[in-house]
Amino acid sequence: MSQNTRTVLLLIVIFSSCLMTACNHQDKAAETHDGRFVVTDTLLRSLLIDTVKAADEQSEISLTGSVAPDENKLVKIYPMVSGIAQSVQIQLGDRVSKGQVLATLRSAEIAGFTKDMVTSQADARSARRTLESTQDLYKSGLASEKDLEQAKADDQKAQAEINRAGSVLSINRTNKQGYEIRSTLNGYVIEKNLTSDMQVRADNSQALFIIADLSSVYVMVNMYESDIASVHLGDAVKITTLTYPDKVFSGKIDKLMDVLDPDNKVMRARVRIENPDNLLKPEMYANVKIRASSGVNLPAIHTDAIVFDNNRNYVVVVDGKASVHIQPVEIAKRVEDIAYISKGLKPGERIVASRQVYLYEALKD
Is the dihedral angle over the CA atoms 336, 337, 343, 345 positive or is it negative? Predict the structure, then answer.
């Protein structure tokens, strides 16, 4: 290596050392200016800065719930007569159409209804013949007006009995196998309490079938007492399920039950969810997130921005372009990861939300 080359390398090393010394001196001066810790623009840009939220900001509450059918789109089917089930044609979970036969019963009552219809038709024919004969006799003077009125009344009674018997048979529809139990709604069978050869009584309090239209469903949300004040009608809701963890169903609170369940001490809120693809099934478990009012008229910050030291809470406030200072704060309430500040901060102020512990220690010293 020549003498000139060694000289050039030595000058480069000396220049670099001087430059580093000057930079360190400049940074140190920036950190102790006017007795306050002043960060450089580069450091400030590397930090996460959060803004103190206004008092009317909303918070997100995480709750649980379950899917339930819309009671306005649900029917319970009871037997109109007693009998023995002969043919149960559908199973739990099947989709059925309005008017579809679900099962048939062999019933003695249906035989009685048919007999009543035949008898009433025969009586009506006899009453009509009597009326026509009496009218002829009345015209001939061989029957009194009273006899004619009585014949007319008997004819009207006979027609009324036909109508009654016909109505009974139309309600209790039959085929060759017996009494037909039919669906009165398009939907899914969500409960089934009938099997072949099962004896059925008309006074049974349990529905044979429950059918629900699941094109829209309810999610019943469980709210503990600490959450009730924060949830209101119209609050936006996002729902996920174990079956579809990546799919979010959106809705709004449309009803608050206003009574606590005595068993689990929760109050329920109702959310109506459109379900055109029938993804949501009754009794599914649901995770519910509600955008609700905070219920506290105080500025709010994220709890991660708070530094706890010597039994007090602090935040690092950004004063301007490149200046920060420690600010003690008093917390009135915490709701999940949100802290509501009763003293020390105002809405709109900026605070450091990353590496704040490092800055706090530097400022404190």
Answer: negative
